[in-house]
Amino acid sequence: xxxxxxxxxxxxxxxxxxxxxxxxxxxxxxxxxxxxxxxxxxxxxxxxxxxxxxxxxxxxxxxxxxxxxxxxxxxxxxxxxxxxxxxxxxxxxxxxxxxxxxxxxxxxxxxxxxxxxxxxxxxxxxxxxxxxxxxxxxxxxxxxxxxxxxxxxxxxxxxxxxxxxxxxxxxxxxxxxxxxxxxxxxxxxxxxxxxxxxxxxxxxxxxxxxxxxxxxxxxxxxxxxxxxxxxxxxxxxxxxxxxxxxxxxxxxxxxxxxxxxxxxxxxxxxxxxxxxxxxxxxxxxxxxxxxxxxxxxxxxxxxxxxxxxxxxxxxxxxxxxxxxxxxxxxxxxxxxxxxxxxxxxxxxxxxxxxxxxxxxxxxxxxxxxxxxxxxxxxxxxxxxxxxxxxxxxxxxxxxxxxxxxxxxxxxxxxxxxxxxxxxxxxxxxxxxxxxxxxxxxxxxxxxxxxxxxxxxxxxxxxxxxxxxxxxxxxxxxxxxxxxxxxxxxxxxxxxxxxxxxxxxxxxxxxxxxxxxxxxxxxxxxxxxxxxxxxxxxxxxxxxxxxxxxxxxxxxxxxxxxxxxxxxxxxxxxxxxxxxxxxxxxxxxxxxxxx
Amino acid sequence: xxxxxxxxxxxxxxxxxxxxxxxxxxxxxxxxxxxxxxxxxxxxxxxxxxxxxxxxxxxxxxxxxxxxxxxxxxxxxxxxxxxxxxxxxxxxxxxxxxxxxxxxxxxxxxxxxxxxxxxxxxxxxxxxxxxxxxxxxxxxxxxxxxxxxxxxxxxxxxxxxxxxxxxxxxxxxxxxxxxxxxxxxxxxxxxxxxxxxxxxxxxxxxxxxxxxxxxxxxxxxxxxxxxxxxxxxxxxxxxxxxxxxxxxxxxxxxxxxxxxxxxxxxxxxxxxxxxxxxxxxxxxxxxxxxxxxxxxxxxxxxxxxxxxxxxxxxxxxxxxxxxxxxxxxxxxx
Lengths: 594, 333
Description:
Chain A is α+β, with helices and mostly antiparallel strands. Chain A has helices at 12-78, 80-87, 93-113, 148-155, 203-212, 236-240, 249-253, 285-288, 290-337, 352-390, 395-410, 414-432, 441-458, 483-493, 528-532, 549-560; strands at residues 117-124, 130-131, 160-168, 176-185, 195-202, 220-224, 230-232, 258-260, 265-271, 278-284, 438-440, 463-469, 477-479, 502-511, 514-521, 565-571, 575-583.
């Protein structure tokens, strides 16, 4: 059977702690995941933002280089000297030389002022080329008109065209990495005639820009031209060898300004309107996330502290909740044992448990009352039962005594008849008089002696007795009818079966603060087995007085407590000794009840 | 009491779980390697494109892999004794790995042995030694490079063609392999190789040897040089003798002069190595080997056949001109 999750544990406390812990772990996990995600996203966005600014700056710098080159090309293209040199027909040699010198002067000024301009040249269709300061030559093994930047310039009409990065091989003896801006200068209506002007930007100007910027230890910047060709990449050689791949189409097609790759790189993209180039910043996310890692540590630490605090709280709370329940449980166990005195709960709180405890207290009190009531009722019932019994005189005894009287009367033993009849009358009177439960020792002894008088007359030669009671205790009050049954028992079970005369001795004395009454006989005695069962009901045979031995014992104990009562010592063929112990000076508190 | 114990137990378990979770979380990204220290000992640390490219390639790999790279080497390739001293110096530093481009085919062996004896991972680059050593060799596949040249030059071969080869050092592994590859590339035409000469890596000697060759075989119309010096020397001779119209040529490696000779049409093709890749792969392999990972015993750093037509292609110009702004300058001729 599927158990309820929370009841699976044996104690409420464990359930509380466990569910608390679970709840907290759950909450903390969500907190951790969310905050880390948020922190990560923020960090990533910040990095992208920061990288964007950096590479945007790179793009701006490139734009300003290119803008500067365009300005130069525009100035050159619209310069009157250049136009005269290109288009004026029938130029004299002197005029040509003069124009060349002036244009070269301009070129020289430009290359002197700008380190980043590697080459600047005018390549007319018909006239002599003007390169840099006028001293450089075209590369004799290269047909310049076949070079891509030259052809692109022609195709573009009069517009400036920007090449990708390349080795400039047009000039003899130099192989510089440059970016070329070329422009066709024509007369407008006749695009063919004229010439091409170009200016080379030193590639290191661009590569330095990119290398100067640090995107962490492993991050880098690369530049693509408008067609996806690599203008600059720190690992260009590896890429061309196929040892490294770089995202080119992804970057060309990217719609957002940054994206993250699966291998943990952040690509940030900046496009230049002017050049059409794309500057891409690549940063390694794990490097960017170093601060996030620190944040993660703090979060985990906070989570751990919170978890501990929550656990302690759960512990204390469960303690608080289960304490009264435990007290209740303990109290119930006490009640089970019948220990009502320790069962009362102190009600501290006014909640459900408090109500429960209060109800429990009421219930135990009620039970306690009921039990006490029952005990009292039973005691009363028992006492009255015993009272009824003690008042009965055994009919056999009565019959036998009367029979003895008849025989004595027939034999004319008048004196004996008188003695016996008066003794019987005394006995009967005592058994009728029920108003007093207690009598003095003297009275009890007297009553017993009366009984013995009758029995002595009946068993003449068989019974001899002696009564020795310390006068000190004669006036002590004791419950009545305790001595006579012992004597009766001694006669019927001991002396009666003895060959010859039996001796019965009644002794009464004080022992410390106890009254001791002894009935000794030298009859046939009892074996251990009989002795053990002496108080059982069946020992009360029909011939004895109604008051049995167990009745005596029970009454003594009911009256005086368990510390007192009746005990026997006996040996077969030697005799029996019955001893009653009673308290000295007992109060007659229960007087009148019996 | 039982409940109490159970509560403590549960709390303990939960705390343990939380602690483990925390530790896992904590250590998740923390496992960083102590940066490895690698020493790269080059044959030379000079301003040639070749060694600078090896150096740059190595630096690129080191930066990417996050290792500490120290680069050493004498000023000239011929200083074998100096390089050997540098090997000892490097061993003193107790690096995790040494990437060595051995100068001597035999002289370097005892020193390389000391590297391995010191328990330092050894990776060889560029050249081999008489004894096979090191975890890995990263070098140009010279046989393949030679065969590329042979296969290309085959187009100029007919029955009449007489072929001459100018090698650099007789018996050196590069010369042997390149020649073998060249023959392989030529196929049947290799029979037309009439002579192989060795210039001991001297341009002047190569020039003289070529002149002698052309004197001995006036109809020789295909000459190849097996390294930069032999190729340039041979090409100068052919150019000076004015027979370049009829003589096809090919060479190895690149220099400005070779490039110009290629542009001029003296050379039909040159085969160049990829030193940047060699440096990059060399350090990458050294790092992998030092970290105890499996490495290939031989890594080809590659070669490329360059002709006048493709020399300015996007891919090849970066190989031919690895560095900007260094070659030539303004009006210098």
